[in-house]
Design goal:
elongated, alpha+beta, Pseudouridine synthase, nine-stranded mixed sheet
Length: 231
């Protein structure tokens, strides 16, 4: 097995990171510094910074959930309504990112730590699309201000895409994930969010998934997901 694949299967380092580790001389095989493209044979001892690593043979799980309002995106079992108890999956999984308790829609869950690390890096600018209902008419000025960026949390939000859906409803596509970002943006512009639903994360959509239900990601979705994260 190639060293990149071996390291990626530990669930700690993605393949791209492995190249940097090799270049820096931080990976060893049987005590010797690993060369690019090296292979790992059964019985070989592989270490990163002197710490032995082994592939995680646990089956990789990738789920999409249509989260209802009231469920909290935490693995803390003492929290009533936590997402882990709600899913009740037979093995350990955790949410990728967050969707606040009062919001609904698409959230991904997995046991693949490398996926989480790559998806959560802000510089990757992965799209997330939301459908938002507010308490008063959506104007062109409001949409323009939302798109240009709003001052919240001592920063200015990144430019984003918006589109009016109906009198008091609009779509917004973000490439960042500040705490309660959409709610705070709307509040700063004098609007109150009545309903917030995430309908897409990157290329994965909520389409056809009933509220409260989950499904496994398809093979096609996984291939595209890895391609985007490694690109």
């Amino acid at each position: 097995m190639r060293i990149n694949k071996y390291i990626s299967e530990t669930g700690v380092y993605p393949r791209r990171e492995t190249n940097r580790l090799i270049a820096d001389g931080r990976i060893t095989i049987n005590g010797k510094v690993c060369a690019p493209g090296a292979s790992v044979e059964p019985g070989d001892a592989v270490a990163v910074d002197g710490i032995t690593v082994t592939p995680d043979r646990e089956e990789r799980v990738y789920l999409a959930l249509n989260k209802p309002v009231g469920i909290t995106c935490t693995a803390a079992r003492h929290v009533i309504g936590n997402i882990v108890d709600y899913i009740n999956y037979p093995s350990r999984i955790f949410a990728v990112g967050r969707l606040d308790k009062h919001s609904e829609g698409l959230i991904l869950l997995t046991n693949d730590g490398s996926i989480v690390n790559r998806m959560m890096r802000s510089e990757h600018s992965h799209e997330k699309e939301y459908r938002v209902s507010v308490d008063k008419p959506v104007t062109e000025d409001f949409l323009a201000e939302m798109s240009a960026g709003v001052d919240i949390l001592e920063t200015r939000t990144k430019p984003c895409l918006t589109r009016r859906i109906s009198d008091k409803e609009f779509m917004i596509i973000l490439t960042q994930g500040l705490n309660l970002q959409i709610r705070r943006m709307c509040k700063a512009l004098g609007y109150r969010v009545l309903r917030l639903e995430r309908v897409r994360i990157m290329h994965i959509t909520l389409s056809g998934l009933p509220q409260g239900q989950w499904r496994r990601l398809t093979e096609e979705e996984l291939v595209e997901l890895h391609a985007q994260l490694d690109g």
